[in-house]
Each structure stands twice: as C-alpha cells, then as structure tokens.
Amino acid sequence: MSRPIHWGLLSAGNIVGQFARDFAVVENAVIHAVAARNGDIASAFAREHGIAKAYEGYEGLLTDPDIDVIYIGTPHNLHFEHAKAALEHGKAVLCEKPMTVTPKECEELQRVAERTGGYLMEAMWTYFLPPVQTALRWVQEGRIGRICQIKADFGYPQLPFDSKKRVYDAKLAGGCLLEMGVYPVALAWLFMKQDPTEVQVVSRHAPNGVEDDLAVLFNYADAVATLGTSFRCKLQNWAYIIGEEGYIAIPDFWRAREASLYVLDDRVDHFVDERATDGFHYEAQAVTNDLLAGRAGSSVVAARDSLAIQRQMAMIREAFCDDV
C-alpha cells in the first residue's frame, strides 16, 4: 500500500479521545473519519482532533471505501456487534477490551474474521507498553527464575453508586470484572500463558447486584496469582512478577511507565519509558505495521490470548455468581 493506513474511529467517547490524541505520533497512518450516534458530537470530535470526516451513525463509517481499519470504543456489550459489522464490511478491526463479554462471542467473532479474511485484534494496549515488554523479556531471559507468584490489581472508586452509570449498568455489561478486572487477568495470562487449575473469588456487589469488588486467587500447577479489582476503592494498581531468584515490580502496570528488577532487597535493573503520550500509540503503530506488512493478525495480542482472557473471566464470574 503506497498511501498511509486510513483509520476510522467508531465512537467519540473518552477512551477514543485518548487514542486520538496519542495518534499524533503514529507513523504511516492517519485518522480519516470518526462516527458517533450524535452527529454534533462526532463533528466536534473531528474538529478537536483535526479529522477530515465525521459521520452521524455508524453506517457511513463502515461503508467508507477510504477506511482500512476501524478502532471500536463503544460500550462492552456492543463490541461484538460493531466488530462483526466492520469485519463484514472488509475493514480491519482494533476493538477495545474486553473485545466481547463472553467466550462464546469471542469465538464467534474470531470465526467471522477467519471467514472474511479480516484482521482482528483486541486493544490490550498494556501488552505493547515498553516497560511491560521489558519485564516479559527479563522473565524470558531467566532473570527471576521460575515464576512462583503474580500479584496484580486495578481499581478506582466509581462512587456514589448510580445504576444509570455505564459502569454499573448490567444491560451494558457493567461491573468491575469487565471494566477493570480485565487488566490483572490479562497481565496474569501474559506471564503464565496457562489456565489456573482452581479459581477462588471473594466478591462484593452493588445494590443492583453488579459486582463492584473482587479478590481473586488463581491456583496454577506450580504458581499462584492474586488479583483484585474494585469500584469501591483505589487499589495500588501495581503488578509484581515474583520468581525464585528475584521479582519485578511494575507501578501502575496498566499504563506502565517503568519497571524494576529486584534480587532480594536490591534493585539490579530499572527501565523507564520517557514517552510524552499516554501510550495508546504503541498498539496503533503495531496494527498499522501489521496491515502495511500484510499480516493476518497480531503476534502480541493473538486470537488465543483474547479467548484465554475471556475464558478466565468466565471462570471468575462462575466462581462468584452464587454470591449474588
């Protein structure tokens, strides 16, 4: 392809705004259009970010012949529908996490991608952040030995409770598991690449029954992961990868800017990402590069990764559903 990759944004919400701001440093690509249900909102978003086209509704974006790839940032429960439509219109898809709300939906969406020959990737932007990639390399190099424990949590207060808020709305797949818990689950999968043999969950629930605080234990054959997520309180939001010979600490791992390697009490290595952006451009650049190279999918967030994350979140949900 001789011209830059043309992106379309399906939604003009907050996370899409962050994505658009970071896109300024993406090479060989341009955001060509944005679509929102409200045309005035789409137009205002386009003006703010210097985007050529704005569509009221999504059909114009899906059928725009100049668009190569669509980034989907709608509520969780709409991801399947919108990603499926984009693939069937011949567009590559980068879909916000969680890509779907059930493993069944994930499998079906991946079948659509296979049938249409389309590119489909979940926007697990944390996987692309250099500190996380550095931590993964340290583990692969054997610098902490065999992994014994993983600790990761992600939580911010979403108070006061309001059943009309998107994050609490069961009809919109609300709840802290899909909204925030996807991050620690994905982090554990990245380093373990296996399902737990046992899942234990302590759950708390909002007045409408939606889970708003979870403490999760994944028991593997020879390791454990303790994971947490919450709408009730601010958690530490760090990740620790603990091995027999050392450990790695990643502050604010979901948006990581640094990682440290420790042996006992001594920090023996330290990586800092001096980026001026939030970090969404790393995944956007990776997708752009994949499309320019004609790759069928991502090697960083592969289909098996997205399906595993869905499968493990379903295991968590099954473990706490009796508590509701």
Automatic annotation (TrEMBL):
The organism's place on the tree of life at top rank: Bacteria
UniProt xrefs under SUPFAM superfamilies: Glyceraldehyde-3-phosphate dehydrogenase-like, C-terminal domain, NAD(P)-binding Rossmann-fold domains
Domain Gfo/Idh/MocA-like oxidoreductase N-terminal: 11-121
Annotated InterPro entries: Gfo/Idh/MocA-like_OxRdtase_N, Gfo/Idh/MocA_domain, GFO_IDH_MocA-like_dom, NAD(P)-bd_dom_sf
An example molecular function term from Gene Ontology annotations: nucleotide binding
Keywords attached to this entry: Oxidoreductase
Domain GFO/IDH/MocA-like oxidoreductase: 132-248
Pfam families named among the record's database cross-references: GFO_IDH_MocA, GFO_IDH_MocA_C3
Family: Belongs to the Gfo/Idh/MocA family.
Protein name: Gfo/Idh/MocA family oxidoreductase
